Amino acid sequence: MAGRHPAKTAELDRFDLAILEILQKDNKTPQRSIAEAIGLSAPAVQRRIKRMEDTGTIIANVAVVEPSHVRHEITVFVEVEMHSEFGTTHDATKKSFAEAPEVQQCYYVTGEVDFILLVVVRTMADYEAMTRRLFFSNKNVKRFRSFVTMDRVKVGLNVALDPKRDRS
User: Fold this and answer.
1) For residue 74, what are the β-bridge partners?
2) Which of 156, 73, 65, 76 is nearest to 117 (CA)?
3) What gap in Å lies between CA 12 and CA 100, rounded to an integer?
4) How far apart are the C-alpha atoms of 79 and 117, rounded to whole Å?
């Protein structure tokens, strides 16, 4: 899912955007219900969903889990600054961040830091162990700064769409 940049892209019309709007709220919505809501047949909805999956518009169908329900009580944002942004060590660092189970999201960014990570852990001891593994043992990590969250005010993965805007 992460870092995918599909070669194929699809032009999305108002029906595609309406389908995406519904699926972002509940991807288990039956295709016949989607079809009724937007004025298409269920087979047409099915074909459109398949096309959007094939072109990478829809990159995953997942269950979003409340971390505290599985005892992952601590969310940390981490800024990471590298010594060098080039070469194999940089690529290895990206790979290590992408593969770390604690790292929920990782962004390579512009500005004073190189990466921003969203980390979810059970305990501060788990976070410390992760910092040793990902940062202290990596000679290319110059410094990192942690921001422990106090409250999850809004969490979501939805992309704001305007299905009423006709793109066709």
Assistant:
1) 121
2) 76
3) 34
4) 7
Residue 20 CB: number of other CB atoms within 10 A?
A: 20
Ranges 7-16, 117-126, 139-148: which has the least confidence: 7-16
Terminal-residue alpha carbon distance, the chain = 28
Antiparallel, parallel or unpaired: β 141-148 and 103-108: unpaired
Output the CA torsion 76→108→4→161 (10° steps): 70
- Tell me if residue 63 falls in helix, strand or coil: coil
Q: Where are the alpha helices (DSSP H) in the chain?
A: 14-25, 31-38, 42-54, 88-99, 124-131
Angle at 21 between CA 20 and CA 24, to 5 degrees: 80
C-alpha closest to that of 120 among 152, 143, 158: 152
Q: Taking residues 70-83, report their average pLDDT.
A: 96
